Amino acid sequence: MSEMDEVVGEFLVESYENLDQLDADLLMLERDPSARDTLARIFRTVHTIKGTCGFLGFSTLERVSHAGENLLSLLRDGELAVDHEIADALLALTDALRGMLRRIETEGDEGADTHEELIATLVRLQQRADDAADAAEPSDSAADAAAPSVEAAAEGVPETLVDAVAGAPEVPAGDPPPADAPPPPPPLGQMLIEKGLVKPDDVTFAVHEQQLGDPRRLGEILVDQGAVDQKDLDEALASQKGASLAESTVRVDVGVLDSLMTLVGELVLARNQVLQFTSESDDAALIATSQRLNLITSELQESVMKTRLQAVGSVWNRFPRIVRDLAHGVGKQARIEMEGEDTELDRTIIEAIKDPLTHLVRNAVDHGIETPERRVAVGKPAEGRILLRAYHEGGHVNIEMADDGAGMDPDRIRAKAVEKGLLSVDAAARLSDREAINLIFAPGFSTAEQVTNVSGRGVGMDVVKTNIEQIGGSIDVAAELGRGTTITIKIPLTLAIIPALTVTCRGERYAIPQVSLLELVRLQGDQAARGIELVHGAPVHRLRGRLLPLVYLDEQLHGAREAADDVVNIVVLQAGGCRFGLVVDRVNDTQEIVVKPLGAQLKSVATYAGATIMGDGRVALILDVLGLAERAGLLAAGREPTADLVEGMSSESLADRERLLLVGVGDDRRCAIPLDEVARLEEFPADRVERAGHDEVVQYRGRILPLVRLSAALGVPGGIDGEDLSVVVVGDGEQAVGVVVDSVLDIVEERLTVESHQDRHGMRGSAVIAGRVTDVVDLVGLLGLTPSTAALSAAPTGA
Amino acid sequence: MSDERQYATFLVDDLYLGVEATQVQEVIRYQEMTPVPLAPPTVAGLINLRGEIVTAVDLRGRLDLPPPEDGRLPMNVVLTTGDGAVSLLVDEIGDVLDVAGDTFEAPPETLRGAARDLIIGAHKLDGRLLLLLDTERAISVAPAA
Fold it and tell me: N or C: which end of chain A has fewer CB within 10 A?
């Protein structure tokens, strides 16, 4: 019995996958009714399901899929054309099949519904073929007719033929494929018939020829007869080979992968401990071995993480169907296009973005895309278009959803925000259009009917935003009135291992996830005393002209603040749309940490997101930045963040400004590097610099990082030897390059007016930033100068 | 009720306590702990048990007993629970005993306070009483506490 369960289980898994593909194929077919490949694939899928469920004794399932198969065979033979009604019926068929499969999964039977109505519809649609061409024979599938002759052919045929007929004579239509193996590729003759390339009679004839002793292969006979093109034949043969590729993949229980991931986490920790011990040793062999362990562990970690990755397409493949049904429901025309479906993400994240994405897609159809009449009136095509795009960028995955609908009116959103008491009239007026549109994510802004009144967008958008932020992602919206809306979601690749900053508070270390981290500010001596001001008792710091509310970690955790000494370390954090500075005793370093859950005893403490084990084996708590902000009362104020955002803004909008990292080079030269291109700031001891050819390199996260000295590029003396190197890591992964500077000064947000000089490679020119003349670095130009980076694009630098 | 059961025993203050041996994953000496600010007061901290993060519950605190006067370090009795391992901090580890079921009796009416909630009953052994601890209650530390 359990063996039977296993067979049924595999049948279910396979059929679910096939049905997802079926949905997509049917939509494609509706768009392009002449797509024979697609039609053939649909036919095969339904055919396989029919065969298997007959074998397993699911009679209703068999009857329904049989009715569908009959209709499909008429379509395939060109006796019927796909139209809207047929597409609807076939989609209803996949729904019915899916429903029954689910029922089998949960209850073990097909359920009482015999789907008579659907079967009747499917049969009725077949009648149309009979009516249209009254000579047409009743529905039995062409493959059924053809297959027996192919089968017959395989018996007692010279061996040379067998490979042409794929050596699989036991797969006549209607029989189930063996349930414990992927179905073997269909025989060539059957494939050609399904694709509509040859007539069944031709194949029967060719097979007959072979039986009479014709030494040629089946395909050759067909080509010689002129029944099929050589090109079509080659394609068919290629896809026949491709089918057997399925055998090189293995299904693995997710639980196994999860435990593998946990074990690798342990290994990473053990590796960290070993590295710490060996750093105190001077046994060369031991050091070499531990470095090797280090590299292997990193690679293993990466590979195991990859096994848990899933293509984002596994969530997206339901969207075409959702868009179609929803659009029909509200009398609109819309289609969804997808790019980068094969972009991979950890499965926990895939799960987490499913609902928010679905919500956004529904929103786009429901409210973004206009009615066809309206679209035509404003000169757009009647059919609205939604583009879904996913791509990797710097350790993150970006998902972009753009529609060409009505967009949003920032003025109406401003008005609505004022009306709802979220902002004062004054504050609303000062918001840039982009900021105004982002108000749709504000809690309390969007409830269904009010927002539909404003612009028709934003239903439950705060929930979407919260969901995305819970997995360490961020979301942004841009819209142009009348032209469309683009929503960009940025999410991390995995949740299990994250980069984090460790800080110390009262002798205990805490980890802060790097996604929440904006920057670090250190106030010393005089600054420490003057840098913190009080607004009605609440401490704030003026950060580049904007007031940053301060939260003291020891006060939050221990209820009291210890006497401050002459250094104040502020970690600037962002959570839930609110920016604040967390004051800690000491800022340590950044590292990759393995996130571990806390026990049930601590679930009620919202301040922690989990715990991790540090290199020395001690446990450190991971701070939940959102929970901390809530505890400090920053979010309770609700409206403040946006108001605060408005506070420091001058007339120019933020979008026009550029964020720059200011660095010092040589004695008193200043350079600015666009912050968008900076991956990390690191310090390396000078003795870690090694040489590769003529270039300086360091080992960095298991890779070789080429170094470029900014002073050399500028042609100024620089670089204090024998001390730590300040390195600005730009780019990521294999493209990363370390730019060596003498000091890191500040991060500024400036509107750049660059005066360019001639013949200064690697520099965009000079600008006055923070009151001083500063060279603005052109990274592309700069990195193009050095031989190592030229080689970079050619050869991977990975270990 | 005459079947024999195996108990892991330990001392907290002058209480001689026991839990069913099958519930005990292991017994280990004092481990360095990371305190958890804002947690319920009976959560003593987190320990790293071969890569697993285990919450240590202060059993003295749960029983409303004061911290030990001599300041000695507690031992860990690590229990297996449905929600991962949890450690009970105790003063001293005792033997594993086979105890006959018929020596069991419900707790005396005079037992009061926190102990009343956590102690299921007593086995009357020669010369001393072995108190059975309700582990589920012992490790559930309500934030309201």
Answer: N
